[in-house]
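Re-run with default settings, no changes from the original entry. Doing this only to confirm the output is reproducible before filing.
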Amino acid sequence: MIPGSQTITWITSIAAIYFSAISSVRAEPSLQEGVAATPSHRQLGEKPNIVLILIDDWAWNGTPISMDPDMDNSAMPVLEMPHLESLAREGMTFRNAYASPQCSPSRVCIQTGQSSPRNGFTVFLNSGGQEYFDEKKSVGLPVISCVSDMTIDPEAVTIPEALAPLGYVSAHIGKWHMRGDPGDEGYTVHDGDTSNSPGNTVGKATRLPEDMTDPKLIDSVTERAVSFIEKQAEAKNPFFLQISHYAMHEGRECPHRLREKYAKTPAVQAYYKAIGETAETIRRKQDPAIWLGMGEHLDDSIGRVLSKLEDTSASENTFVVMLSDNGYRHSFLPGQTQPMHGKKWWLWQGGIRVPMLIRGPGIAAGSRFEGNVINYDLLPTFLEWAGGNPDSLQDIDGISLASYLSGTEPTEAFLNRSLYFHYPHNRTSMPHSAIVAGSWKVMHFYNEPELPMLFDLRTDEAETNNVAEVRRRKHRLLYQDLMGYLKDVGARMPKPNLDFDRQAYEQTEVFEDRLPYAAFNGKRNLAEDEK
């Protein structure tokens, strides 16, 4: 932490770096003219459908699919998801897919094709007002964090708004969690301004209720999704369908039959024994059998959607994308170590790396993609699939993946492009930012701005070895890139707390909670991640 005597130096250093960054005029996002031309009926019949299945809170290694075949801990084999595995066999698995560290910002990135620092929706937290800084949540902390935008910018072009001129009908089923009305963003069919609450169907119950009928709303979400597919197939409309499940968000729920199945597995039995519980005594929110059952129930839903595409003869002309909204940390199975550092709310790899699969026309079965991709790449990709021009989208950060998915070799520029992450908030974690460029990553914590952090992900994916001191030029260039970008897009920046008492702070619980994920010099002990 920065002692009080260094506060002025801290402010001066940050201000000099921040305001010396390259500036540019921020254009308003819009579609260029010419894209809105109505396609012919023949063209409509040839356009592919797009189904995005967005999963809530799912770690990179939380599926039964190996994100990296050479890493034993890049999958969760005890979880049975045959339909998801079929999707992987028939399509492409992405080793290096990135998202946001929290669900709502990730959803906004997907809709707008913009990074979180650009769109300003960096957390689902503040509930009103026009303030810049979040003083209330920063009392006693070293950095005063920022507020966040509360809705999607009305002038941002969303996925359905980009696809509508090309004849697409769009639906959003399930969790929205971005405030506002999905209908205002171009969705013809939607469930309204939903948050986590509808998916927590049993409230604070410590056990699964005997009369549970629709855990996590998986069945009802699926029924509405397949109904939409049927109607669009009958009308011969090309469509975009986003199925945003409430699973795998905590508040674990699943059918009793699946809970009973997984409670009997050796891995779960070993977990019960390790914590001194049994299948009869463990609480619902602690029970891995319920989480695993929720995963298999989710897979049943995916299977129903895939079957409906087959039944309506739409399967061969439909892109199916599966993605998680943020990274997570599933640490309840004995013997399964975590391959990534950090968790949800943090910009360490564990908070922003996610599982991702795509199946569709022109995508080779069983293929893998090694380059970095990110959630804000989806909008331009979808637009190109639909026959539009991704270059017509103004003021976005995403790049269309369409050509790479069909077999084009990625360029060096693409493989080494910069991905930007910004979390200027005091909520669970602390204000920090990150940049990933190729295999290099810079982490920057605003409470320790003079501590440089650089990681080579090729050899250190767990981020154990800070090489900033031996690769100073590399760190400097990436750090300048990050700060220049944040300035360029008008990102909100935190500020030091002039009343900060370091000694008092280090005696608090929040300090202890943050310590395992704080900035560090040199090397850290990988074994600490398993505590």
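The longest strand covers residues 367-374. The chain has 17 helices and 16 strands.
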